[in-house]
Structure formats: structure tokens, C-alpha cells
Amino acid sequence: MRTELRTILTARIVRLAVCAVAAFVFGAGQLAWAQLLLDEHPAETLGAGIDERRGEQVPLDLTFKDARGRSVTLGDYFDGERPVVLVIGYYDCPLLCTLIFNGAQAGFNDIAFTLGQEYRAVSISFDHTNTTAMARERQAAAHVGYARYIEEDAWPFLTADASNARKLCESVGYRYVYMPDVDEFSHAAVIMILTPDGVISNYLYGIKYPPRQLRLALMEAADGQIGSLFDRILFYCHIWDPRKGSYVLHAFRVMQISAALTALVLGAGIGWLFFTGSRRSGARGGSLESIESHERSPGSGAATAMEG
User: What is the per-residue pLDDT across 215-274, written as a single tens digit (0 to 9) for each?
Assistant: First the structure.
């Protein structure tokens, strides 16, 4: 028994060490899959992955528990106005989920949009054995690490029973596999961007979420209804490239914006020249009329005769 336990513990330590080295070497952002698995577990991890379901509605009537133990529905966090970042994992995950949560937190810190104002985030554990105490601990860490003050419901951490967790994961195409010999899960490293009505808009993979990519994903989910004028122009100039898995500049739209700006500048310049030219002509015309009026005046003629 002791030998078996020692073997399991050794396997965990090796796995954590390999994950840590990989995260350091690849900047952590290249780890798209959870739990870097050893060769002895290939069959157990084949079912893990993502089946993208953009444009599909998630079930908003699913029930969960928040960090205070209160019963809530997924729909409580969708108000029809703000997009939602969905972060799925499990709270006692030995490494990868922490990297995902920290990566999401860093991404949120790096964009101008504020949690609870322009958008929301919701973290949910798919492991039904996770407790509200675990959720509360994760939530406290996430909120402390966020650069701005936010209300509790701006980024809640929820727990679920097995049925609701499974239904949620199936609705977004999130496949995970339990590995009983090490008591861990194999799963994808990804966050999902949902529209204000709970429709899946996009998936951002890895454990680092570049600010521009995250901002554009949120704007796309909100149909361009959040952000400044500059944000909206930036959003218009980008398009999602599924081959690269990122937003890229759309050449034709960039040319359209450039042409519009050029026309605007030329129009403003021509209008200014016309306006200033009209003012000068008006000023000269007024001066000539004043001189002619002065010459025709009786007093002016009498003065001329007296001088003669």
C-alpha cells in the first residue's frame, strides 16, 4: 500500500515539475491542454478537448452555488447588456487551473474595460466535489489580484452538482476526463466569451490572453456596443482568423477607414479654404463700399469744392 501511494505521489511531483518547466520554457501561453500527462495515461486523456460551438445558446436555467453557498442560476449573470467571460476549471487543480485563473486575471488587468461595468466574468468548477469554501478562497484571491475594486458579482466563483456541471460543459463543447489513478482531470486550457444573452461568441486558448485579443473578443460579443470611439474603430479594422486563432487586421477595412479619414481631412481643408476666402472677399468688398459711400457724401463734395 505504501509503495503504491509512493508511486502515485512521485508521479504527481514529476508531473508538476514537468508542467512548471514547460510553463517557464514556453512562457506558459503555449500550454493549450490541461495537466501535461505522462506517457502511461494516453488512453485516459483521449476524450479531453474542445468542440467549438460558436453561435449556440448556453442554458441559462442551470443552477449553481455561489461562494456564500446561495443558490443562483447562470442567467443571474447575464443582463442583456454586458458580455460575459466564462472560465471553467476545478478549484483543487494542482497547477493548470491556477495558471488559467491567473492568466484571466492578468488579462482583465491589462484592458481598459472594468469588470462589472463593461463586462462580467464567471468561473465555474466542473468537479462536483469542490466546495463553497474552495470557491470562496479562489474568488478572494482573484478579487485581491484585480487592479480595481469590484463587487462580488462582477466575477463570482461557482460550484455545481454533477448534472449541472456536465450540462454546462456539454453546451460549450468542453470535454474533460477524470483519471482515477491520480485523482485528477484532463481538460483544455481555454476561456469562453459569451454575448450578453448567453450565446457563445468565441474561444481564447492557452493561459495567457493578450489585451488586444481579449478586448476585441469582448467587443465582438457585445456587437461593438462597448468601448470608446477608438476601440470601435480598432474593432472594425480586425477580423477573427480561425486558422491563427486570433484577431488580425482586415486589409480592406483598414483601407476603408484610411480613405474615409483622407476624405474627411481633404473636405475639412477645402471647407476651411473656402470659408477663409469668403471672409477675405467680404472684407475687401466692405472696404470698397465704404470708400465709395464716403466719396459720394455731400460733406465730402463740399470739402472738395472749398479746397478748389
Answer: 999 999 998 766 555 555 554 465 656 776 676 655 435 444 555 557 566 666 666 666
Over pLDDT 90: what percentage of the chain?
Answer: 54
If DSSP codes are grouped into helix, strand and coil, which group holds residue 217?
Answer: helix
Neighbours of 21 (CB within 10 A): 11
Residues ≥6 apart with Cβ < 8 Å to 231: 112, 215, 219
35 is in which domain, residue-wise?
2-228
Rounded Cα–Cα distance for residues 87 and 74 (Å): 13
- CB atoms < 10 A from the CB of 215, how many? 25
- In this predicted structure, the answer to whether residue 5 has a pLDDT above a threshold of 90 is no
CATH number for the domain that contains residue 143: 3.40.30.10
Residue 69 counted as domain residue: yes
**Would residue 242 count as lying in a domain?**
no
40-44, 48-52, 105-109, range with the lowest pLDDT? 40-44
Give the Cα separation of 46 and 279 in Å (integer).
78
116-141: pLDDT as tens digits: 999 999 999 999 999 999 999 999 99
Q: How far apart are CA 308 and CA 303, in angstroms?
A: 9
Pick from 223, 186, 184, 185: nearest CA to 202: 223
Q: Are residues 140 and 276 in the same domain?
A: no
Query: In the chain, how many domains are there?
Result: 2
Judge whether 201 lies within some domain: yes
Same domain? For 224 and 84 the reply is yes
- Return d(Cα 287, Cα 203) in angstroms, integer: 71
Residues 81 and 215 in one domain: yes
Tell which residue, 156, 154, 149, 153, has the closest CA to residue 132: 156
The pLDDT, as a whole number, for residue 41 is: 47
| Residue 233 belongs to a domain | no
